[in-house]
Amino acid sequence: MRYFLPFILLLFLSCDFQGNNPVRNQDHKEKIEEILSQQSLKGTILIFDSKQNIYYSNDFAAAEKGYLPASTFKIPNSIIALETQVLKDENVVLKWDGQKRAFPSWEKDMTVREAFQASCLPCFQKVAKDIDAKRMKAYLNKLHYSNMDVHEGNIDNFWIQGKSRISPFEQIDFLQRFYTKKLPILNTTHDKMIRIFEKENTDSYRYFGKTGWSDENGINNGWFVGILDKKSTVYYFALNVEPIDQKDVSKFAAGRELVTREILKLLEIL
Fold first, then answer.
1. Domains of the chain
2. In terms of pTM, does the model score above 0.85?
3. CB-based contacts of 183, cutoff 8 Å, min separation 6
4. For residue 173, what are the contacts with CB-CB under 8 A and spacing of at least 6?
5. Where is the Penicillin-binding protein transpeptidase domain (predicted)?
6. Which of 63, 168, 222, 257 is the most exposed place for a label (fewest CB within 10 A)?
7. Which uninterrupted H or E stretch holds 35?
């Protein structure tokens, strides 16, 4: 009996340990890469089934590498702005200064939610400046949003150029901590961010997504990250891709979300 009890304890601990380690499934690699190539893209997608504790990907090694966060940084940027009262809520109007912008759709006053959904870079550059580098760094540390190179000289662009990096695995970790209320933020901040972030809300699911696009040294790199809450299961996803031909970005803007949704359908998630 004295040998039997330690054995049972060891078996229990072993099972518990294994249960906490997500399974990695790469069964759909070829089909995923075919979907990517149809939109002239190459790269990786990482999807996490939080109920089954399974990661799906076509390239787990690439999903562990860091890339510039680009406009996916609007997620923590918005959270920090709400926490510091730089932004009151999703309905605050961000004024256009009348200056020429990269896209005509940005050349108008927008609410925070509208600016987030339109990925208005100048809007959130001003938000970051209003937060300031000292507070930004303090909150990024508090939120465990690591590997951001932030200082006064780059407070308005550290997420689109320079040394800042985040991996698809880290994107999903942050999204999961946000959605499950594990971040050290106010409940009111969480609720406001949900309203900013949400793209669709149907009878069967809620869908959140954010694009990102950086162009550094002639290399276009893009993201689509988000959450699909099907009530019974919550899925988290992070796509990071580049154009197969860096000189042809004709499919790049729309292609990131399009391929993500196609891959979610392939896995019978969406």
1. 23-266 (3.40.710.10)
2. yes
3. 79, 143, 177, 190
4. none
5. 57-245
6. 257
7. helix 29-38
Q: What are phi and psi of 146, to 5 degrees?
A: -85, 175
Residue 15 predicted with pLDDT over 70: no
What are the Cα distances from residue 44, in Å, to 65, 92, 159, 242, 254?
Answer: 10, 35, 20, 9, 17
Strands (E), 52-174: 54-57, 93-94, 110-111
Task: Select from 240, 221, 215 the least CA-distant residue to 157.
Answer: 215
- CA angle 72-269-22, nearest 5°? 75
Band of the pLDDT at 7, cuts 50, 70, 90?
A: very low
Cα separation, 223 vs 175, in Å, equals: 14
Gap between the Cα atoms of 80 and 155, Å rounded: 14
**Closest-CA residue to 264 (of 244, 235, 241):** 235
Q: What SS3 class is residue 210?
A: strand
Q: Which of 27, 25, 63 is nearest to 44 (CA)?
A: 63
To the nearest 10 degrees (0 to 180), the angle between helices 74-83 and 187-197 is: 140
119 is catalytic: no
